[in-house]
Structures are given as structure tokens and as C-alpha cells.
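Lab notebook, bench 4. The sequencing result for the construct came back, and we need a structural model before the next group meeting so we can plan mutations. Quick request posted to the team channel:

Model the 3D structure of this chain.
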Amino acid sequence: MKKISNRHTTEYRRVVHDVANGLQGRRLFFFFGAGVSRGEPSNLPLSDNLKHPLIDCMLSAIDRVGLAHLVQIEDLRKSLYAQPLERILDALVRAWRDSALEYLTVLRSDRWNVNHGAIAILARKGLLPYVVTLNFDSLIETALNKFKVPFVLKLPLSSYAGSIGKGPPLLTLVKPHGSLPITEDEAIGKHLAATLRYTGMNVQP
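Done. Here's the predicted structure in C-alpha cell form:
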């Protein structure tokens, strides 16, 4: 086992102390990406895990229709892999409209993990007034509901803001990229800002 130096131990304790003080003073907010929903039992895919199979499928289609000789497939694959998921979805939405966003329903899940649970517990104790997440999934919301934490959900690009749960809200959850449908009867793209074009059209000055 690698021994941790006294310097690193002291630095670690200082960071923990600063975080604890920030929580107690309600001076912290958390900013989460896809990794928060990666751990078990959630096991939701990261951006590249969503993007690469989609690109591979697109390139396979080029081969199947006999056009592979017109492009350098591996060069094109590397170029597409380097693009953000939102840019790939841009192209698909232009061709297939919002039905292309059905691809993101793989993120529908109610299997929250210890990360989501920790957020809910901190919020219930009144220590975490704000959380910002770029995730489309609703696992933070699921954990908040499980622990009976009333909160405000804000989706800036779709101009949605609503209170969820009973009592005064203990947390404001902001999702700049939007969210999967909030209710079962909503269209997949109603609250999603999954493409660069959508984001650019809806940013307020």
C-alpha cells in the first residue's frame, strides 16, 4: 500500500475542513456532469458511450449502401469521435426532427445511486441550496423525491421553472442542458437542449 505523505494528509484535511465549513454556511453549490450517474446501480452511459455507437452505426450505413469507397472511413470516424454529442445530434435532428432524440431515452431510469442520495441528504439537512447539473437524466430528482425533499427545478433554455414536493423548497436544481420529459405525456424534446442549434436559438441576451 502506498503511504500518503504528511503534506498530502494535511492538505486533504484542510480541503475537507473548508468544504464542511462551506456546507454549514450554505456557501457551496455543486456542479455535476455525467459521472454522477455512472456508478452502480445507475450505470448510465457517459457522453462518449452514447456518441461512439451512434457514429459507428452511421458509418456502417455508409458501407451498407455501397458508398464507403467515396470517403476514408477511419479518418471520418476519428473526426466524428472528436465532435461533441450535441453536434452529432444536430445533424440527426435536422434529418429526422425530434424523433432522433428518442436515442436519449436510454437515460430514463429510476435507479439512483449513492451520489444522488448524498445530494438529497445534504439538501434535506438544509446544507445545499443549489445544484447545477448538465445531465439529462432525472436521478437527482428521483432521489430528492425518495427522501421527501421539496425543490425547485429550473430548465433555463426551455424557460421552465416549477416547485416539486410539499413544503418550502430546500434546494434549487438547475439543468442548463434541459431534461428528459418531466411527465409521461410530454414529447421527448420538450425540455431537452441536446443540440448546439437549440442552445444557440434559445440563449437569452
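The chain is about 40% helix and 10% strand.
Will bring this to the meeting.
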